[in-house]
Amino acid sequence: MKRKELISKIIFVIAVILFVVGLVQVKSIASSVEHTHIWASKYDKTNHWEYCTVCNQTRNVTKHSYTTTWDAGGDVCGNRYTNVCSCGYSYADYKPHVWDGKSYSIWPNEKVHHKECKVCKGVIKTSYYLNTYGQGQLYKGDTREACTLSNGTRITCKNPGTCSICGYVHNAQHNLSVNDKGSIYCTMCNDIFGSQSNQLTPDNNTPRTYTTVSTIKLTNGATFNESSFGFRGDWWESAKITITSMNTAKTEAVVTVVSKFKSNIMNKMNSDVRFFVNIGGIGSQVIGWMYEYSPDSTAPVINNPTLTPQASSNGWATISQLKITGTENLSDIVYVTVKDKATGKAYVTDAATTVTNGSYTYTSTPALEGDASGRTYIVSVKDKLGNTASKEFTVSKMDGSAPELKSG
After folding, report:
1. Backbone angles phi, psi at 77, to 5 degrees
2. Which DSSP helix (H) or strand (E) runs through 327?
3. What is the pLDDT of residues 127-151, one digit of tens each?
4. CA neighbours within 13 Å on the CB side: how many for 344?
5. Any bridge partners for residue 47, and if so which?
6. Which of 86, 238, 248, 263 is deepest in the core (most CB within 10 A)?
């Protein structure tokens, strides 16, 4: 009985070995079959190239070449830029600052300091070189640092004094902010000094105009400095602030801000209604709850995608160039995605293309396929704000896949 079981196991192992060898031989045959190459396009972080959809052979490997677009403000320290290659690859970064090794920008309410750029005099939040631009090590990251006394303890509203690093003399000023529940509180001692609520109403223009109504109630001895109301951001073309109402005790107020975006702002921005209050004879600024404001809500327009056969066989296209065009009313870059409607498989994902005079064009040769009755794909185009449009298109009589070889 045991001998029969052993023989059965030996026969099974031999069968498995023969099957594996057969598969290897089939794969070897498949890789050596003569065929007409069908070239599709592809890219990574360094290069773009064409590859054969049948055998995966590659050709025309080319290093990316970029067109640079800048956020509002242009080529200046700390500003964000995006490099876009015509193949669809893109990446974003920030222009470095320069620090002289000794200068700081002080934020008295938060009792912190940042390294200060010697070129633009702004705070360094992204990256910087020491003394000379482009030379030596590139330091990255926010340079924000808490102010401390000579004994190493953190300076706070309850522990004021002179910072041992930046030299600033701090008093007992509170660092007042607004939390997600609308409470005005000190981030250092956690004392509560009132509440703030806001209502935002945008119009439908591009760029948008917002009306922000802020209702504020102070407690715990805090009173308004009524001439101190402000609205954060240099991205506003105009911002008119009106104290709609204030009680005689200067503890309750309604403030209305009508603000219009500058025409060159293409990103969402955070702004708040901020103001100063007096607490125990010391002025403290309240940084309001940050709301996200968008300069535009209009999605890009997509024209009907076109497919131009690059190769064909027996009346069927084996590969086609896909061309996607359209218009965009604000952003200087749009991002293109192409997916199979039925399976969700992505053939193009967030490929970037620049917008010139309000129009964009993206071309590639993805390995799309469709039978005689057609297969549906979805192209989506989004702008820098995330506004997205989609359009379906059909691919028919296109096959670029190699036939499957099976043993047996």
Report:
1. -55, 135
2. strand 316-327
3. 999 999 999 999 999 999 999 999 9
4. 0
5. 63
6. 86
